[in-house]
Design goal:
This protein is α/β, with parallel strands linked by helices and 235 residues long. The chain folds into 2 domains: 119 residues, Response regulator (Rossmann fold), CATH 3.40.50; 97 residues, Winged helix-like DNA-binding domain superfamily/Winged helix DNA-binding domain (Arc Repressor Mutant, subunit A), CATH 1.10.10.10. The chain contains 8 helices and 12 strands. The strands form 3 sheets. It has a 5-stranded parallel β-sheet, with helices on both faces. Strands 6-7-8-9 form a 4-stranded antiparallel β-sheet, with helices on one face. Helix 6 crosses helix 8. It binds calcium ion. The site of calcium ion has 5 residues, from loops.
């Protein structure tokens, strides 16, 4: 079986696409080049790649629309947007589409490779968290072994299974927009709360437990059109 990580390059400019494919395959990745979203949609039906390098200006659906669609399909796939110098894009716009990072054209291939490796490392960290058994979330600390939230004065609050599972997924995926559907699939408990707003209600509950001000959440943020993202405290 091919163990190499699969990177898909969506770029309509043939020379640019070939350059990226040659470079990335020399770096040990399995690569697929596609010229538009049509090909990407077809490929994703068969297999979800590890990472998609997405040009913003494409014929048909643009890169932003494709990123949003891809993020709804999978919370795990890594997405890096490739933007033209003329695009007035900031990090927020990139994150709202569900992208993990973006790189402006023209770019140094080594810079791109560094971004790719960093995004993949973060994603793989989700499987085996290096964060240790305790993760700071908002005003409290989640203890992954004892399955409790710890107050600043040391008091411990027990969590329901569904609250803990959700907090654990966030703790293992910091700074990563997680699609609402993907969260529902991943944390399960569907049989107990089989209605559309189940995830939003659960988020409201855990926000009350971890946020300093639940009305203005800073730890568990809403990513419009996608779902939610855990942002660890700054210091
Ligand atoms: Ca283009």
């Amino acid at each position: 079986m091919d163990k190499r990580q699969h990177i898909v390059v969506v770029e309509d400019e043939p020379a640019q696409r070939q350059l990226l494919l040659d470079y990335l395959s020399r770096q040990g990745f399995r690569v697929t080049g596609l010229e538009s979203g049509v090909g990407l949609r077809r490929l994703v039906e068969r297999e979800m790649p590890a990472l998609v390098l997405l040009d913003v200006n494409l014929p048909g659906e643009d890169g932003f629309a494709l990123a949003r669609w891809l993020r709804e399909k999978s919370g795990r796939v890594c997405i890096i947007m490739v933007t033209a110098a003329s695009d007035t894009i900031d990090r927020v716009v990139g994150l709202e589409t569900g992208a993990d990072d973006y790189i402006p054209k023209p770019f140094d291939p080594r810079e791109l490779l560094a971004r790719i490796k960093s995004v993949l490392r973060r994603a793989n960290g989700a499987v085996a968290p290096a964060a240790g058994p305790r993760v700071r979330m908002g005003r409290r600390i989640l203890d992954l072994e004892k399955r409790v939230l710890i107050e600043s004065d040391g008091r411990e609050e027990t969590l329901t299974a569904s609250e803990f599972d959700l907090l654990k997924v966030f703790a293992e995926n910091p700074n990563r927009p997680l699609a609402r559907d993907w969260l529902l699939e991943t944390v399960g408990h569907r049989e107990m709360e089989a209605f559309d707003r189940a995830m939003d209600l659960r988020i409201t509950r855990i926000r009350r437990k971890v946020e300093t001000d639940p009305a203005h959440p800073e730890a568990i943020r809403t990513v419009r059109g996608v779902g939610y993202m855990f942002v660890p405290p700054k210091d």
